[in-house]
């Protein structure tokens, strides 16, 4: 299941690079000054068939109006910075020994200055995340999660002309319920867009983190930004 992600995405990235090399000239910015449209961002999101044969989009539901959580533990998602139009796409790959999820969200603003302001607000939220947290077991009507410890790291990120930051979280469950969850929330901006690309990998009955997690989330983010340019 997880090997498929690496193979298919490697091919996707290779195709994007070849396409980009086919024309040495920079694209004409046109009358909009090179701004990215909502339609362009929707088209740049990866589809399930492009990531792997076991991936699928969730059943039809209302479009989400919020971002994913930035900080570890039970922290609430950050508020959506004002002024942009939110577009999103979610995918998942669920198996017997774990699961993967990909949430692709873009905030499309009327100009680059508004996007820069939105990115700055989100960076402020990320910088306030505690570096570690210990969460007791949670048992409710719709949630049953063992106790876990989670670390959070925020670092600068530049990818294909897009710049911003990435939040990397690692969750390790209590010994009685071995398992891990690795999450990368990449927040990047270019021109009038802020992209929030979230990849999470859950491993059941396995206390070790995935050795390919870092490379996988970078391939996912790189595939999207290459499409936009």
Features of the shown structure:
229 residues; alpha+beta; 7-stranded antiparallel β-sheet; two-stranded antiparallel sheet; 5 helices; 34% strand; globular; disordered N terminus; PknH-like protein; signal
Write the SSE topology.
Blueprint: H1 2-21, H2 38-44, H3 48-51, E1 85-94, E2 98-108, H4 112-127, E3 132-135, E4 138-139, E5 144-145, E6 148-159, E7 162-173, E8 179-190, E9 193-204, H5 213-228
Antiparallel strand pairs: 1-2, 2-9, 3-6, 4-5, 6-7, 7-8, 8-9
Protein name: PknH-like protein
Signal peptide: 1-19
Keywords: Signal
Question: How would you describe the overall organization of this protein?
Answer:
The protein has 229 residues and is an alpha+beta fold. It has one domain. Helix content is 28%, strand content 34%. It has 5 helices and 9 strands. The chain has helices spanning 2-21, 38-44, 48-51, 112-127, 213-228, and strands at residues 85-94, 98-108, 132-135, 138-139, 144-145, 148-159, 162-173, 179-190, 193-204. The chain has a 7-stranded antiparallel β-sheet with strand order 1-2-9-8-7-6-3. A two-stranded antiparallel ribbon has the order 4-5. Strand 4 and strand 5 (144-145) form a beta hairpin. Helix 1 (2-21) runs parallel beside helix 5 (213-228). The longest helix is centred in the first third of the chain and has 20 residues, at 2-21. The protein is globular and about 55 Å long.
